[in-house]
From TrEMBL:
One of its GO terms (cellular component) is cell envelope. Residues 27-45 have a biased composition (Polar residues). InterPro entries: Bact_solute-bd_prot1, SBP. Residues 1-24 form the signal peptide. It is found in: Cell envelope. This is Extracellular solute-binding protein. Keywords: Signal, Transport.
Amino acid sequence: MTRKVFGKLLAVLLLVLVIGVGCSSDETGSNTEGDNTEANDNSVNDGAESGTLPAMTDEEITLTYASWKNHDLNVFLAEKFMEKYPNITVEIVPLDKDGWNDNLTNLASNGELPDVFWYNGNVDIAIRNGWLGDFTEYFEADPETEDLLDTMIEPGYFDGERKMAAATDYFPYAVFLDENLFEKMNTDMPSPDWTYSEMVDLIQEMTVPEQGIYGYNTGGKLLTIAPIVNQDAVGEFGWDGEKYDLTTDWAEAANLRAEFIRSGVHAPLYDTDEAEAAFGDRTVWPASTGKVAIQIDAWWTVGTFSAPEFVDKGLKWVPYVVPKGDNAETENKPAYIDFGTISPATENPREAYELMKFFGWSKDGWKAKLEAFKTMKDDNGNLVFQHPDGLPLIKDQEIWDELRTLLPDSHYYDDFLERAKHPVSLGGRALPGFETFLSEVYFGGEYGDVELAITNGEVNAHDIAIDLTEKANEYYEAALEELNY
């Protein structure tokens, strides 16, 4: 029985007991809709045990906040938060993204770790430095938690019990197809409900060496996609919530990727003689050449592909979600997810939690973001955001509908947004030990760079998959042992 199921069952049993002995029958608690945010914020009870959040303070306090989002956007959101809570002053801590975690280390050493902050990439650094605050009682008592995307609730429960980080930003993996090239090649565009094997087949079909056409180019990799979509995994490398498994889909995809690179299905790699021969420029991005049919990348590339540089070349890149696994039961898809936390030393953890939520996933926070996307202008009077910066982390359809109005008028965007609500975070941000495993084993162990070794034909992915699986699981267990504060 999982922690959450047990907790809900216990709550039901306690409720039955209370009713049975004749106590009040007032229907309050976590099952209440909670439409009145102010009522929830000002509820005067003990918090998580009764299913509602404790009251926000009415004292004058200051909270500090740090993330690498657009600074002006952070200032805008801080002002909106302070309008909602006039007694709270929010100070934005400006830090360079380069060396972000080093900057946090310096702040922490001086006792100045922000009340709310994002950690960059490697959660192992946050664990080792004791940066992660425990906000379980607030998260589990908060009615808004139920509105989070289903796959975004569990990440951050690193030890299975304490909620110590939460998703704060979401950019899905995206698969872009050059619609004009498909039309030129007399090939039908796939269904928005395409499958993984259909994508692989299409990549091969669209490879036409005699015309210099490559089936695909990558920012994201098949070996990242395949285990998540085909195994209904909740993390990279077949992570199922308890362990990794690289022996099936990762191994098959790693070998297939290598074959595609060697055989010219994949566009030539950056800064190689092959790229020079194919494009006349060894450092050109293949997606800008008109010779690539499919680009596996990230959602933020929507803005890049809308630029005149691409449109004027006759390129028409349109977004598809990562395809579903052929026999999958979920719509889980890889995504770039950033995570935030509250400082374990904050003097105002309840208010810090509310600030983290506002900048991350709350409906009120997303209303403010949408307003910023529509109205924020630079010194030249141009909109700062040509398209929404990320996707919502909540199910609220009003927010998704409003965001849709800020995207191009094309059915491809309708199709994409409808199918982009089951993100799975990449490993390093959400899985203890993963990033350390990558640096010490996957990219720097006895096989050297594993992916390069497979591509060069030095090893077969299936031959090393058991060893990699064992080591990945060992690193996870070792990281959990460090999470002891």
